[in-house]
Amino acid sequence: MKKAKLATLWLDGCSGCHMSLLDVDEAIAVVAQKADLVYGPLVDAQEFPEDVDVTLVEGAVSSQDDLEKIKHVRECTRLLVALGDCAVNSNVPAMRNSIPVKKLLERIYIQGADERPGIPTDGVPPLLAHSVPVHEVVKVDLFVPGCPPSASAIAYVLVELLEGRMPDLNSKVKFG
Ligand code: SF4
Q1: Torsion from C-alpha of 168, 35, 26, 15, nearest 10 degrees
Q2: Which of 24, 30, 58, 147 could make a disulfide contact with 17, Cβ separation 3.0–4.6 Å?
Q3: What is the CATH number of the domain that holds 35?
Q4: Of 23, 58, 88, 95, which is best to mutate to test ligand 1, by the most ligand atoms within 8 angstroms of its C-beta?
Q5: Mind listing the pLDDT tens digit for each residue in 27-56?
Q6: Is 77 exposed, middle or buried (0-12, 13-18, 19+ CB in 10 A)?
């Protein structure tokens, strides 16, 4: 039987959701029978493939780079899952939203600098005015709250999706 293509994407998050994914223990064997992991920080692929079945997205959309990535990933993915509170409601990254970007960068890189004050621009993607949840910029097919979601919830989501069912997350997840 042809295996599904599974990807993960790391936007503005702390990597805790990916750590929880790594914690699924023996469920990884079930997932590995049904899917190949084709992209994400856990594998070495450089380009996002064109025909991915399921992508788990960690993190909010905070920079121009995040925005371009998630739009491309959406175009190439059949089922897009917002994994964790940062992806679902922008959570921690949104704490900077009340401060204008220019003021924020000046506070950190100029007023807060011990040496060589200056806002870096070389190779640094510009921040968006606000850090936003994934569904504000692209369609999301499934929301999995939690900071991070438990490994058991992630394992359940993956197995259900890879078997062609939409997971019923009632009582299995919570915010925070
Ligand atoms: S939801 Fe929590 S664990 Fe996941 S990226 Fe955000 S802060 Fe980290």
Answers
A1: -80
A2: 58
A3: 3.40.50.700
A4: 58
A5: 999 999 999 999 999 999 999 999 999 999
A6: buried
Q: Which two tokens stand for residue 114?
A: 């011990």
The strand pair at 52-58 and 4-10 is best described as: parallel
pLDDT digits (tens, 9 = 90+) for 124-152: 899 999 999 999 999 999 999 999 999 99
**Residue 76, domain extent:** 4-95+130-162
Cα(116) to ligand 1 centroid in Å equals 32
Decide whether any atom of ligand 1 lies within 6 Å of the 92 Cβ: yes
CA dist 77 and 84 (Å) reads 18
